[in-house]
Amino acid sequence: MSGVRFLRRYVNGKLAVVAGLLGVLSVVALTTRGATESLARERSASTGPTAAGFSVVAVPAAAVQTPAPNPSRNAYFGDLHVHTSWSLDAFIMGGNLDDPTVAYRFGRGDAIVTSDGREVHLRVPLDFMAVTDHDSTLGEMHLCQDSGDPVYDTPTCRDLRNIQSTLRDQPIGNRVQAFMRYYRPYHARGRRPSEICGESGIGPQNRCYERARHLWHEIQKHADDFYDPGRFTTFPGYEWSASRTGEGMHHRNVIFEGRDVPEWGGSNVEMQKRAERLWEWLETVCTGECRVVAIPHNTNLSGGIAFAESGWAPYTPEILALRAWAEPLVEIHQIKGNSECYLGLGTTDEECNFEPYRPICTPEHRDRGNCTHATGYVRNALKDGLRLEAEYGVNPFKFGFIASTDDHQSLAGATDEDDYTDRPMNQRTASIRGGSSDNPGGLVGVWAEENTRESIFDALRRKETFGTSGTRIRVRFFAGWQFPDDLHTSRTLVDEAYRTGVTMGADLPPAPSDDAEPRFVVWATKDTASANLQKIQIVKGWADADGETFEQVYDVVCADGLDPDPETHRCGDNGARVSLADCSYSSDRGAEELNTTWYDPDFDRSQRAFYYVRVLENPTCRWSTHRALAQQTAIPEPSLIKERAWSSPIWHTPVGP
Amino acid sequence: MAMNWRHILREPLVHFLIAGAILFSLSALFGQSWGIGYSEDRIHVSAEKIRQLRETWTKRWGAEPNAEQLRSLIDDFIREEVLYREAIASGLDKDDTVVRRRLAQKVEFLAQSLASIIDPSESELEQYFEQHTEQYVIPAQVGFSHVYFSRSSRGSGAERAARDARAKLTSGQTSVTEASQLGDRFMLQYEYPPQTRAQIRDLFGASFAARVFDLAPDRWEGPVPSSYGVHVVRVRHRVPSRTPDLDEVRSQVTRDFEDARLRTAADTYYQGLRQRFEIDIAEAALERRGP
Questions:
Q1: Chain A contacts of B12, Cβ < 8 Å?
Q2: Which of B52, B76, B229 sits opposite A592 (nearest CB)?
Q3: What's the pLDDT at B24?
Q4: How does residue A57 score in pLDDT terms, banded at 50, 70 and 90?
Q5: Do B84 and A591 touch (CB under 8 A)?
Q6: What pLDDT sits at residue A218?
Q7: Which of A156, A283, A408, B125 is the most buried (most CB within 10 A)?
Q8: Chain A residues with beta carbon closer than 8 angstroms to that of B56
Q9: Looking at the complex, does the CB of residue B95 fall below 8 Å from at least one CB of chain A?
Q10: Looking at the predicted structure, is the pLDDT value of residue A363 above 90?
Q11: Residues of A in contact with B226 (CB under 8 A)
Q12: Residue A24: its pLDDT value, please?
């Protein structure tokens, strides 16, 4: 017997071990080095003068105490939308150097090395996160990288592994599209490529399903391994990424609390890309201690189907109620643009011209996913929800807000504008469209007693959440019928407001009397490392008796002694400026914190309405300006942005017929 | 002497060589019953082989293969064997770059997988911990209470108010609750258990984090500016930076050691093998340059 033969036999017996090693090895090499260096930097920083941007500490877990649970709740920041090379597009963009463990390490503050060889770490570690790789090709991706599997040597798998070199001259977006073209005809019919997967459907005959099922266990294990109660909370999850050819995305992140997580139920492909099947499946399997939220995202790229009735999913009271249960939250901002509102699509709000991603659809746009629609925007959905509630008795769009990154290189929570330079996602957009419409993405904030799965998931479920454009603004928002007019000046504002009112994400209770009017209390503080706050706005939407919907944006408190004009509801310019020579900004304008007690001058007790808060910072340089300055190229427009935070709404529903 | 032996026996390379030697001898002795006899025109799938296939599947997927799956495993195996024999017969193993590279890779994976199987010994962990102690140093921490004065609502008066409050606090007997009443409402907490400098920086900003580590403990100090305003601060706990015992950080050290061993296993293994060869490079050819 030859040595080769011995080896071969031996190897066959060790397939299981060998399979996992490919990915693990490279990843381990990167992360361990990073963590060491990050510690070295922290030490030097703590002995010398304050160094701007010194690294985070990877403190041995048991060494640092965590504050006791706070009944008045703390703000925790997280990222619930992160991809690793387990996602097909992320693999094609960045190769196989990362996996969920790398993303979790990065999120908790360790340094990692990116696919283009840069060592990076977060300015501020995240408090919580979930890795959400795409479900569609989870199994195929893993099979094609498993050298012990028979499909490893199929042409498709070889192409996938070699795509970096074979399509070297193509922009990354084209490479992704080239590969998706292969899957699309199968997925469109709810099937799998037989060359890789064997049979389609749910069961062991579908090798891709089986592999995805196995990976679902791995996903849960990684989330469990990195969960460090009190310090760093992780949730098992994935992205249900149904895309309809010519129609755009209707994607959801499915996030479980971590107890009683159900067995893999197939991806959106097995569910024929129908969201109601996802909700039905969750309702069926997520019982007992299981808790789940599905969070729609990139509704701006949904081709308008995110918040519209369609032929294949007609509204019924049952399906709308199911949807409201499964999807209490929506992602309002991320790398691929803002989904709050879009100037010209149902609004004249000047702040809706914020990180727009695609142009408004015209008859010339054949692919509806490449342009943007009114029914892809959250504010419009909130308004339509009021109408639907009157018609069906259930509001399917009673959303709390989150924001996240949707990073495709494991860089969870890396939202700093001055640190967002040449990510593959950026290169992709730049090379496809010659523009720079990506942005660093956002963060999700929650108000929770402590940093644990139970406490944070409770906050997600009750929608006591806010989204930011990446900044760490903290925002409180309460409403009540009996709040005093000066509640915002009270030292015990938070306790009083919880006791006598409701907070973001909740419903005002019925009015106690016929002439009662609600008071709203807002309070926000700045990000310690960003510009001061410019103003706090309240966005109101309402429906009249005929079901017609309206909106109004009120500046409710402004910095620098400015007061809103009673006609326009806006404050004047506070004079905050930015130097485009070096991105320095006026530190003498704006406020460290803003608060007020507000009443709605147009309040009508008989109308359904929602109110949410938007906090705006003074302008700062957009990431594209930082990059242009670093590369000494022309500064593209827009050169500045106003970072912001959005609180979940509070709803008012009239009592009686 | 005994120590040395124990040491050698723990070497992943030695494990590999021993395991290899045993398997090689066994397969040479019992090759027939193990898998397929090496006769040119006969493929015998033995009971032992079937057991092996079943075990591999079970280990991988956590459940026994059903009859259909097992049948398909055997079919795959036969198909592979037929094609493999044809490849050998055609001499493809001799001079094919792809085959050579794949085989080389697999040997490396094997070395690594063996490295990952063996639990590290106490002395290995101790040695690793000693060599990398600096990685496990616990940074200095400070726990404190503070009273906040908002610059947004008091403007330049915030500093003065803080100074007044400090004087009041320093002179009298003031409880924490009373102390916090002197200042303004704060978005974060009024009291923190020991936190590292990075943690404090993330909450209060860099200048506050720098100052608070220099404050004398157990007295009201300030005003200390933060990103939000100014504070009067009382440091309640100072925890100096220290090196933990191995036991405190054992799980982290074990994970780091295993990571490091995995990274070096392939290379160590290669270096070991390389020593067995005399390597001769046609140096003259290196001089030749392309046009």
A1: none
A2: B229
A3: 62
A4: very low
A5: no
A6: 94
A7: A408
A8: 12-13, 15-16
A9: no
A10: no
A11: 528
A12: 39
Please name the residues in contact with A382: beta carbons below 8 A apart, sequence gap of 6 or more: A397, A398, A399, A541, A610, A612, A649
How far apart (Å, rounded) are the C-alpha atoms in residues A84 and A89? 9
Max mean pLDDT among A327-331, B109-113, B261-265 falls in A327-331
Average pLDDT over residues A305-323: 90
CA distances in angstroms from A411 to A81, A115, A344, A440, B190, listed in the order given: 10, 11, 33, 10, 32
Asked if A650 contacts A475 with a C-beta cutoff of 8 angstroms, the reply is: no
d(CA A607, CA A501): 20
Q: HSE-up of A170 (CA within 13 Å, CB side)?
A: 15
C-alpha angle B159-A593-B200 in degrees, rounded to nearest 5: 70
Question: Lowest-pLDDT range, A47-56, A424-433, A482-491, A573-582?
Answer: A47-56
3-state secondary structure B158-177: HHHHHHHHHHHHHHCCCCHH
Q: Is A70 on the interface with B (CB under 8 A)?
A: yes
Helix ranges (H only) for A48-130 are 88-94, 100-108
The tokens for A12 are 């066959």
Residue type, A142: H
The mean predicted confidence, pLDDT, of chain A is 86
Which residues lie across from A402 on neighbouring strands?
A331
What is the pLDDT at residue B173?
65
Q: What is the pLDDT of residue B15?
A: 67
Inter-residue contact A533 to A591 (CB < 8 Å)? yes
Cα A75 from Cα A93, distance rounded (Å): 34
Segment B184-190 mean pLDDT: 94
Non-local CB neighbours of A487 within 8 Å, separated by 6+ positions: A493, A496, A497, A519, A521, A597
Q: What pLDDT digit, counting tens, does each position of A21-30 carry? A: 333 333 333 3
pTM for the structure as a whole: 0.80
Q: What DSSP line would sit under B101-135, residue for residue?
A: HHHHHHHHHHHHHHHHHSPPPHHHHHHHHHHTGGG
**What's the pLDDT score for residue A179?**
80
The answer to whether A399 and A381 have CB atoms below 8 angstroms apart is: yes
A99 to chain B: which residues are within 8 Å by CB? none
List Cα–Cα distances, A401 to A444, A461, B47, B207, in angstroms.
8, 11, 60, 32
Amino acid found at A657: P
Mean pLDDT lowest for which of A633-642, B77-86, B236-245?
Answer: B77-86
Per DSSP, the three-state class of B139 is coil
Q: In this model, does residue B41 exceed pLDDT 80?
A: no
CB-closest option in B194, B256, B262 to A65: B194
**Whether B122 contacts B130, CB under 8 Å:** no
Cα–Cα dist B28/B22, whole Å: 10
Cα A493 from Cα A495, distance rounded (Å)? 6
Here the tokens at position A297 are 């995202």
Distance from CA of B287 to the nearest CA of A (A): 30
Q: A134 with A87: CB under 8 angstroms?
A: yes
Reduce the DSSP state of residue A313 to 3 states and report it: strand
Q: Is B136 on the interface with A (CB under 8 A)?
A: yes
Q: Is the pLDDT of residue A92 over 90?
A: no
